[in-house]
Design brief:
Length: about 725
């Protein structure tokens, strides 16, 4: 049992962590263990209050992604030795887990996942129905086609886990103070924070919001609207079942993906938890509008078995011994969801020294690994590996409360959906982020979602099978994308590139700043180059195109998914080096059209008096000109590898510009193309893409970027 210490103990700290769930306590443990002095954790009621204490505690090596699997793996390895290190029992069971495939498509998915297992040392096997039955003898096998088996998976007691991490954190010198509520946060001009509580104020070098479903309230104190929403998750525990009691070894955890539930042994009974559909699931949206009730800590919601009845029936069908079992407990508690179900982890753009570790739908399995990941990042100035998928800056002003609610419903309901390559999800779309061409193009193509934007993936022609039809095999976009690819290689194509992240930088120190930020040389006025921001360890943090439009005034362009990720890094360097510059994010105001293919020059020349010939307008030059009387900045560059220009213009001019280009290209057979064809073209040209061929896991030489890296700088 813990004895609370309601005191601050000190008025200065290096790092103040707000929130004493398993994630916050894990961060305190890792920072202190790594030798950071003055780590203070503040919890407003008691450790584990909120979502941790009532969690089902599942632990799995499995994750469909690549680097998030490292987080899972680290957590499990840590939990295995925590008891020995801290002397605290953690109640860790590792009977393994099996994901059940009962449709041919699900078998395809498992095969697809097996192709990725070589990335990791953790064991994962595709097993036959016979092997599934051997491992879990209580299953009815009628529909089982295969299993995906992860030895070492299991479940842990979340309360005991948190207490063991807390004991470790204290052992290494961290202070865990509760009940101490944070009442206000004030940022100071030197980048430090004043953290106000009823017991006094602590001045901190940095603060970390790990406040679970209170994270929104903490964010609001500094003017941020974190896109989080609590959802109701229920799981059911049965009394003793004779057939379970008779078993010699503990049953593996099963995940019946078509039935959309997990099921595991709990003592001599079973515990199972469903993820109901988006129509049936329940959000606690009143907490978003009115805030979390002040006293809420270790309370639960009213259970509602009717809502999960179809899943209970599916479980009884798959595990028939459940039919005669008594339900002794139904837990209905809040867990926090972000729009895409992944947490938000890392430093936040636009606020200095404010970090987050929030939005955990799976906090128990993520706690250990995220504590270590964040601790490394805080202490070393860069992330230990790339996790752009959990970057808090993947969201922006476009992430409204309505969007968050629609997406959380969808993400919860889709918890066990088949994970196809190139997956699209349609709830909450479109957001306010639409390009000037959206209304014109939306019925002519299959749109993809990119950081809030809608962007054409591929275009329809008569006779095509239209719409989004995902598959693990060749699908409906295969031939149309080939057609667009041929169009750009042989004639000319137009693509909407408006989602690019776009920044303007000017000021007396602009050249000095860019020379410091990038590994390439600073381009001359009227020129453009490809430049990379490298981390202290020499990993590729970002790739941007840099153009010097006027003396000392630059435009930087990055991929849509990296907009705020890159801007945060730039802003931090500006502050750290005291550079006198102004940075303007013009992403939403500016449209971009790409025109590429052998006839690109011929068509654009019809619309301007400017000489576009090769002698006059060379590759990687930029120029201000008018096309069809529309003022724009043209850069001679194309990600397709063909002759082409990118045309940067005011968003309100997009339709006029697009129509003029399409009109001028009739004779040459001009047509649209989308990002799928663009990707095929750039791969064949050998152009690298950030997030695919390079990221924070690669150095630029491994990625084949020597040409852009000036080692004499």
């Amino acid at each position: 049992r813990e004895t609370p210490s309601a005191s601050l103990g000190k008025d200065r700290a290096d790092t103040v962590i707000i929130g004493g769930g398993c994630v916050g306590v894990s961060l305190a443990y890792h920072l202190a263990k790594a030798g950071l002095k003055d780590v203070v954790l503040l919890e407003k009621s008691e450790l584990t209050a909120g979502s941790t204490w009532h969690a089902a505690g599942l632990t799995t090596y499995f994750h469909p992604g690549i680097n998030l699997k490292k987080i899972h793996s680290y957590s499990i390895k840590l939990y295995e030795k925590l008891e020995e290190e801290t002397g605290q029992v953690v109640g860790f069971h590792q009977p393994g887990s099996i994901r059940i495939a009962s449709t041919p498509t699900r078998v395809d998915e498992f095969k697809y996942q097996m192709t990725r297992t070589g990335w990791h040392p953790t064991e994962q096997y595709l097993i036959t129905p016979e092997k599934v039955q051997e491992l879990f003898p209580l299953l009815k096998m009628d529909t089982v086609l295969a299993g995906l088996y992860n030895p070492g998976d299991g479940h842990i007691d979340p309360y005991s886990l948190t207490m063991a991490l807390a004991a470790g954190a204290r052992k290494y010198g961290a202070q865990l103070n509760y009940p101490v509520q944070v009442t206000n946060l004030n940022s100071r001009s030197d980048g430090t924070w004043d953290v106000e509580t009823p017991l006094g104020t602590i001045r901190a070098k940095r603060i970390v919001n790990a406040a679970g479903f209170w994270a929104r309230e903490i964010g609001k104190m500094i003017g941020l609207q974190h896109p989080l929403i609590p959802v109701h998750h229920q799981y059911v525990v049965t009394s003793t079942i004779p057939e379970v009691k008779a078993l010699k070894t503990e049953l593996p955890v099963i995940r019946d993906l078509e039935g959309s539930y997990y099921l595991r042994q709990e003592r001599d009974g079973l515990l199972f938890g469903p993820y109901e559909s988006e129509e049936k699931m329940k959000l606690q949206d009143s907490w978003v509008t009115n805030g979390v009730p002040p006293g809420f800590g270790k309370e639960l919601f009213e259970s509602d078995l009717d809502r999960i009845m179809e899943h209970i029936e599916a479980a009884m069908e798959m595990v028939p011994v459940l039919k005669n079992a008594d339900i002794v407990n139904t837990i209905a508690g809040p867990i926090t969801y972000s729009p895409d179900i992944l947490p938000m982890v890392g430093p936040h753009q636009g606020v200095r020294n404010y970090w987050v570790a929030i939005g955990f739908g799976y906090g128990i399995i993520h706690a250990g690994g995220i504590g270590k990941y964040l601790s490394d990042w805080i202490l070393e100035g860069e992330p230990p590996f790339d996790l752009i998928e959990v970057d808090p800056n993947r969201y922006g002003k476009w992430t409204t409360t309505e969007y968050t609610a629609a997406k959380a419903r969808e993400s919860y309901g889709f918890n066990n959906i088949v994970g196809y390559p190139k997956e699209e999800r349609f709830a909450g779309r479109p957001t306010e982020r639409t390009s000037g061409l959206y209304d014109l193009l939306k019925s002519k193509c299959s749109m993809g979602f990119h950081a809030g934007w809608e962007q054409p993936h591929w275009f329809y022609k008569p006779g095509d099978e239209t719409g989004y039809k995902p598959s693990f095999r060749r699908t409906n976009w295969f031939d149309p994308v080939g057609r667009e690819y041929k169009q750009v290689m042989e004639k000319v194509g137009v693509i909407d590139l408006s989602p690019f992240g776009k920044f303007k930088i000017k000021g007396t120190d602009s050249v000095k700043l860019l020379d410091h930020l990038f590994a390439n040389v600073v381009p001359k006025v009227g020129s453009t180059n490809i430049s990379h921001m490298l981390t202290p360890r020499g990993k590729v943090y970002a790739e941007l195109t840099v153009s010097q439009l006027y003396p000392g005034e630059f435009m930087l362009v990055t991929g849509s998914g990296s907009e705020l990720h890159d801007l945060r890094w730039i802003e931090e360097e500006v502050t750290r080096g005291g550079y006198k510059v102004e940075i303007e994010n013009v992403t939403d105001e500016m449209g971009v059209l790409g025109v590429a293919g052998p006839y690109a020059r011929q068509i654009l020349q019809k619309l301007t008096s400017e000489d576009l010939s090769d002698g006059s307008f060379k590759f990687l030059q930029s120029r201000h000109l008018k096309l069809s009387n529309i003022a724009l900045t043209a850069i001679r560059i194309s990600y397709t590898g063909e002759l082409g220009w990118e045309l940067y213009h005011r968003k309100e001019d997009s339709i006029g510009l697009y129509n003029a280009i399409m009109e001028a290209g009739q004779k040459e057979g001009i047509d649209n193309f989308g990002t799928y064809a663009l990707n095929a073209l750039r791969l064949e040209k050998g152009f690298r893409a950030w997030g695919a061929e390079m990221n924070c896991d690669t150095n630029p030489l491994e990625a084949g970027l020597e040409y852009f890296i000036k080692l004499n700088k």
